[in-house]
Amino acid sequence: MTTKPPSQPFEKWTEKDVHLWLMTEVKVHETCADTFCEEEVSGESLVDFKKTDILDMGIKHGPAVKITSYLESLKKGSQHESQFPAYVENWTKEQVKQWLLQHVKVYSKYAERLEEEDVSGDCLVCFKKQDFLDLKVRNGPAVRILAELSHLNKKPEPTLQPIVYTSTDQTEAPKPTQPVLSLAQAIETKQPESKTDKMVEKEFEKSQLPFKEASEKKETQQQKPKDLRARRKETVVTTVPAAKYNITVEIKETLDNLLKEDVNNFHFYLKEYTKSNHKPISLSRLEGKDTKDTAKLIIDHYGEKEALRVTKDILKDINQRELACQLDNKMGQLEQQCLSEDVLKKEANQGDKLKNLLTCGGNSLDNYSRFVVVVNKSSPEQVQYLQFLNKLKLFCVLDFDPSSIAPGGLCHSYRESRLANLHTPSQYQGQTDSVIKNLNLYKQTSWVFCNGRNDLDSDSDKELDYKNWLKKSCKGVENLVSLICNPEVLPTGRCLILFLLLSPVDTEKDPIFEIYKAFIKHTEEECIITICGPQSKYEKWREMIQEMSGSDIDPRSIYELTLSEVNGTVMALGPFNQSSGRLLPSSDSSFVVLKQKDEDLLTALDILCLNQCENIYEENSPEFHDFRIKVEEEFYRGGKVKWWNFYFCDKDKDKPFVKRDKYENVKKLIRSQLRASKDMCVLFNLFHHPGCGGSTLAMHLMWDLRQESRCAVLKDNTHPKADVAMQVVKLMNLESERLSPVLLLVDDSKETENHYELVSHIRQAVEDYCNINVDDEKNCKVIILNCVRSNSPKEQYKRHNPSQFITASLTKEEQNNFEKKLKELKETHEKPENFYSFMIMKSNFDKKYIDDLARNTLENFDFSSKEAQLFAFLALLNTYVAESEISLSLAEDFLGMKVIHWKEDSVMDRMKRYSNVLIVDKVEEWGGYKGIRILHHSIASACLEELERSCFVKVSDITMAILHCDLFFNVGVAKHRDSIQQMLIERQQKDGVGRELFSSLIDKIHNQEGRQTVQQIFVKASSRFLTSASIPQALARYLYIKESDFQEAGKWAENAKNIKENPFTLDTIGQIHKSNLISNNNREKQETSRNPEDLNTNIKTANNAIRAFKRAQELANTEDEPEEEVADDASDDYQRKSYNVYGYVGVLEIAFLVFEILSRLPFFEGNDPMRKKYFQSFLEKKIPITSVHKEENEINNKYVEIIKEHEPFLLSLKTEVKETFDLVNRYFTYTKVNNSEFDSKNHRTVCGLVKKYVALFCTAPDEMKKERQKNPNLILEIDIEDRRLFLEEKQADTFAGILQHLDKPAEEIERITECYAFLQKFNKKQKTKETINYILSNIVLYLLKPKSKHVKSYSQLSDLLLKTLQDVGLGYPFPDPYYLALLLFWPGPTEKNTDIGTYVTAIRNSSRKHLSFIFRKRSTIAHFYLGKGEGLDRFLSKRKLDGTFKIPRDVLAQLWWNGDIFKEQKITSRLHRVSGITEEGQVFANYGTLKIPVRPALIGGIRHGFSREKVSFYLGFAINGLLAYDIQYEN
Predict the structure, then answer these.
(1) What is the pLDDT of residue 1509?
(2) Exposure pattern of 1253-1287 as b/e (b: 16+ CB <10 Å)?
(3) For 1049-1070, what is the HEC assignment?
């Protein structure tokens, strides 16, 4: 067999010859040689090969350089010879890296780059300078490496030390020729002198030997697995401790890399260094010192142990992070990961090691936001020692024990004291957001059965053997693992995965081993730890993983502790629970214990207990003192207030908490509501400027009222309202048969209307789930304290009752209190003057103070640096979006930092220049995470202004920079994306009523830079928010409102509609066409010449607008549930869930614009009555356009052609307008309309258009009067038409229109009744509708003017109605006749009417069929109430009842809204109380044996439980049936 390539010229080599040359001469790895074969490289091809051609084949740089070097020798016909010692060619790539770091001392990234490119010793000796440059190694290091290589010929072989890899390194540790050292092995421990110590000394001596010699003895060092435990204990130290190096030399050589100005900078920071217990080195001692003297001075001053940390800290401060990392690598230390030497020393002890792994070197389990546990089969004996799982913040448990749910199983044990939802891996399929929402992840533990459940009988729940599990279940569990490891679900580095091996894993063919492999595919192995029972179980597990991944899991494994010891160790860690149990107030001044399991159920609520904060710490301990100082400092700097802050002040009565002046007033009002209000749920609004202490005041109120009611904070304002209501009711009922009042804080909400929905849900939940007796009624109260951030709190306060407001302005007394508090803080805290949020309030929000702070913070600001960009992003977001922050994980990624599990403040270290105004907060949303933000809204705002003023960084620049940053949009916390979108589209409340047209940010950019920049921002944003209709919709609104660019606006509106067709996107299209039409109309009014083509364009535009508005209204009428899309409500002209009748109003506005445009045509315009008559007649389809009198000319003929082309559309307008008016009229008449700006605006618009309609269509021209005189035969016909026009003019031609006259002067309804009487008498074509309206007008007239001669008697009206009912039957298209039947035929005390039940059914069916879209999510109102009289005297109108009060309208409205009006004697004395019964959850009125169905007028009117009870109530008549008010139970 040939072992060398043939001697013939290499140009003639075959592919096999080339392969043989590569294997025998060049000696590259076989895979490289195989690649040449696969790519069909023969000698003929090889002659033309260059290094780039080899790299193009996927071969790494090291082998490529070596092959190129050998190829050059081959071309020259010479033998390749190395210029360097032979031992260099024997170095592995790991040894090359060690030599580069320890002897050449290059930056670690260069050494790592060469290692990645497989540069072993035999490759390194072939490198030229250009080869290093191609690997992005700079000129200086490249020259140094080549020089050091050449010096090896003159020096002894260098000693190479193995590199210690820690659990926080991101790259996988290489496999050196010596064993990889565990965390425990890397640190010297102080133990008593023993045999072990002698072994340690021998190991230490071995570590001094040249690396080559050590590698030769590798076989003797590696022991068999059975001796593994002994080996670990013997080799606790196998590296040279840091102290053995000459630290002075290392620091000096590191400082030698600095430029002279950097050394001066280093001296400056050294004299300011305050992170040590030692005082800083004075400047006088540093003057004139070179790097050697500086290094010696640092060691003499701080000692060897601390000198390294000091040096590295300062190198980071002066932005020399590479040198800091290099110093770490040289010394083999682990300080970069923030583990002190003392902590690391403990790791030889497994108990301390477990503690360090779970707490990142601390004492508390809250360093990780979530834990994921993977567990296999357990025994009941083991389960008793697994109580520590109750203490962990479990995200999910992946359980491979199908019996775990049975008694004695782990899941069963956990669920005895904590809540866990039972899931299967398949339930984790689908959209991430949906999975999180459906499985209630973050809020409750998910217990996932990964291999069957023995308590269920279906085939899919059977336990499978490995082979079948791999086929049927493995994929599902792998998908589950993928979702768990998604950074959007659990941010990288904030979650710890714990493999809990309770039974042996003897083979790789085990499902739990497959899942370990799945986890290491999706996350860093450093995030996974193993806890194992007996060591024998562990050894096989460790071997399998080492064979599979090549990594040693020892540093992350616990295997020497019993489960009892594991349990005890974890339970001893913080945070600690209250030893006495958490208490809630209950009835009769008693208390109940809040169980952990109950608290787990109340996922939406953060419950404040009576004994909150008590019995958690030993309060005389130094730890408690330090904790108090830290908590107070965080709050006064600008952190969110914690219950602890109030607890500390309660403990120290001499130093009370600073209160705003309104505090006592708000407390009094809430107490009043708790004690006196008859409403079971009250919404109390507290409006406040951002950052003026509103949330703190609300929290303080909760703290002080926690003994009087059960208090809770709503964690997430987006939580489904119905679910919140259920949890509030559960809190009322918890652990007691008697109800307790609840005080619920909804903090920093933006809207008040949205929370009326919560009020309704709570009322409904109380009605459905609480059995309320008379004694309980006073305690069945929920007060929602709605804390609303507002730019105009005082104006908001005026419009809501009950409410209060606080502003960013202190009274003199408040300022004195803050001054006093500052003196107190000086006694306990260093530099309280730096507690900027506190100082801003103390200065009474002084603008100059805040501006000076911003100016000092931003001195020498450089927007090109990552730190500066991150700060600018925060300034922008914190200014324009409430509750916005950037998660630490995103900040770390943005700053290009390694994820360091051990140190949350690493971001703050990088942001040191700005850290005085930054704070890290815990955020509850999205499963909880830590985020960084600016301390106070006013500081963020001032910094943004300063950036523009002094740093020339515009707001638009920062906005575009965020939109260009992929990190915000790739993965991670979705709230960041929401905040950015909110910033672009959310519109603020105006000081008066309504909202601004655009977001504050867009307004600012528009005013500063105009359209081009705004459009660029929106276009970029639309590419980021591809599934959101809000961005293109907002751009469309901007273009038509600000720029009148209707064509471009239309394109973006269509884009929005294509993303999501809903009432709002379609309405925007309609609004664009409407604005275009208005613009055209205004322009044409100014022009003197006429262009018929303008008419054509306008009619087309109007047609498009009406189509859009009608489609919008159609969608609004048929939508089951309003859309739930973040911030969409902020991008259009109405609140979410309140489109109501906007589409109808839009249709009306367009129609009247068309009427106006037509009225200006030459043959319709002017004051000539005949022209007006022609115009009316054409629109009413009485004459065609060709019959209209006009001058014959080209322009008029062209107009006629255009009108004929659009005739169907134009002739439909009058009918469309009339029908739409009737629909809108019913909406405003029959339903309880919100007193919102939107309904008010709609109502005003419609009223204005009604007047135009009346002027256009309801006035009889003079010709009609003349015709009446000329032709007596037409008098009757003209009189009938005249009266109908009058009824239409007064909107009395509809049933709803007549009801509106209950609130108008009696004279109008008298004339209306007279008109209907005339029509009844003389009109032979009498319509049923007119008869119905005639009866109603009589009833209304009687109530307003009972002695009018036009009023018919009760019996006459009854007879007329009976005849009408005979004619229409029970299928009339509107509920009007049945409404009259209920009024007139309602049985008196001595009467009977067996048909009344039929009419109730008929009115319900008719209203449901024909008016249901009007009643969607709105309550109907009663226009009449049953009084105590007889005949027509027994009806009372709301206007009549209101007239008995002399109180403000808003107070009166509140009494009606909550039902308290029926507690007033002035009302009850005039109303008749009807007897009835409740059955099957419904209310019936009783008359003899007759049961008439009625509906409760207010939610919560009847009890849950389908109890048959005697009741009584007041009766109201609504268009869709009878309403029962003030339902009282007789017993």
Answers:
(1) 80
(2) bbebbbeeeeebeeebeeeeeeeeeebbeebbbbb
(3) HHHHHHHHHHHCCCHHHHHHHH
